[in-house]
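A favour, since you know our structure tokens better than I do. Would you make up a two-line entry for one protein for me to read? Write everything out right here, beneath this request.
=====
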Amino acid sequence: MTRSMNYPVKMAAALLPLLLLFILPSTGQITWPAGQFLPSFPASAQTQDLIILRETSTRWEGEGPALSHKTGRLETDGWLCQTGIDAPNDHMIYGPYNNSIPAGPNVAEFRMKIDNNTANDDPVVDIDVRNATTGQVLASRTITRTQFPVASNYTNFTLPFTMPADNQSIELRVYWRGTAYTKVDWVAVQQNNSSAEMYLFASLKGIVNRTQPRIFSYEGDAFAEGQYTWLQSLGLGWSEPADKWDLITKYRSELSGLIVYDPAQIHTVNLATMLARDQHALIAAPTLVSRLTSAPYNLPVLLDLRGQFSSKLQVYQTLYNTYWPNLDHRLLIGLNPDIHKAALREYATALGAAVIWLDPEVPAESTLLNNFLSSMPAGANYMGWWPEEAPGVQRASTYGIATIASDWATNLTVHSGMPRTVNVKPMPPKPALLNKLYVAFILSDGDNLQYVEHLMRKLWNNPDRGSVPIGWTLSPAMLDAMPGALNYYWQSSTDNDNLISGPSGYGYAYPNSWPSQSSLNQFVAKTEDYNQRAGFRVITIWNTITGGINQNVGETFASHAPSTLGLTAQNTGGGLTIYNNSLPGMALSCNYCTGEQAMKDHIASAAAGWDGNSPRFIIIQAQPWQNVTPTSFKNVANSLNADYIVVRPDHIFQLIREANGLPVNPGNNPLVFRR
């Protein structure tokens, strides 16, 4: 690849001899044995420093009460103006008159979309930032039609500005020209002091915890488990500093200085995340530099990224050209620096991993993303998340790379430092095969480590857990990333809690898209290894949310995952397929149910026409994000008549096997039955 010697790359090249000293592998006590998906951290300290990390919101919804309008109207998730309907040449958005934005450099953000980005290049909107206290316009910009890269998808437009003083009122405005359908999702100011602290303390956690995990943060929202829950579940003690800034003083001897990111090019945060580990540096916003370079911290600025890059793509091209050749290619992390300010960033900092945010649906970004993915070895992983789920997982899958969803996982450095022993409970004996309607429930999304850490842990406390059989999807990668949590789930499980593998094995992938049969064989064989050690006998296979399982994929699981009892497929109503005369694959009767009524309806549909002369098998998978709980499954089970029997997912596959003349205990797994 030809490298353009623009200024940022010249700057990077000039610093290369120094920086390579930091980039060359230097993992301290972190170990990453060959064949292990993710690294192991040193043992977590018995007493953790517990801090609360929460961001004060400086984002305002287009349809929300903080903003006003002179034209346009509310439509679902935003504020809409349409040509020929709404009055042109007026402000469709203005407000919020917020005075919490600190003095200094900052960036406003406007999230908008139009329906056609190619008709012409007419001006669509004027955006500006106004100091409502003084009346001064601090920054302005005209957005034309072709500056929207994709029609009908939201695009974030940024506008750098400098706030002259603290406690002054800010106004963000969108002036609609009337030339195109325009919808505003939200407006925001990227940085306030609470935002800056998220990056700062995520990097502090990463630097400190890489040698011994000692800092635990609670960053919870409505889906979260509670600030002490995991510390108690893992048997760890904690102390809570009066001020989280005290920890910078406490661990000052482990810090060398600061890397200052550029708020005008927020993706420099991801570059700083990669560089921070080996420079023992904190990631600092310009607004915090004065405080951090003064007593009692006295941290020098080691690298200042302000003004060095003119675009997002330039940041990641520099990362690829200059730093990627010397990084560990077994792992690539995707984090949106506008949103993922802490959470998984501590883990990325501790590992010094490459962190990107590239969209496979944006052509220039897609090309660069392919360069990263094509240089990763077999069995490599992409952690974090994607701009959009299906295009991202699909792209990684075409390179034989699984996605380990984990963007909002908050304490993987601590979880990865817990003991790696997982005590798997044996499966209870299966029920007798009768001419009944057998129903199994599955709760989806356990491939996502942040769900396992947060919402699932909250659902696990539901008082109705254990009253009805439920298949709880989990990630086999927990053996590396969250072994103590996996052991906790096993040890606290009831006979009605069946832990199974989330999609589509050791990571989220679309196996139908795997690049070669040999690499698919490796993926499935490694999944079998991890599932056996994790105690998972059932795998939920996704090939998009509605896709079935290709014949070669099913046969590969039959050949290379011999202990697997069965596979579920997302092609609702697709029925039963037996691969290689040995492995049943069952299409779900509902692939992502949203509530009790949907589950009841799909069960009734799947049972239609049953004559009672043979067994029938129905598997219902529900999603957890819209208040589906163990109580929901109990209510559905209680609504069924005596023709139905609700069983665990592993049991339903044993019954399917028995009904079709297959061995009920393939692979002679010693952990099948409890005597």
In short: Confidence is low (pLDDT under 50) at residues 1-28.
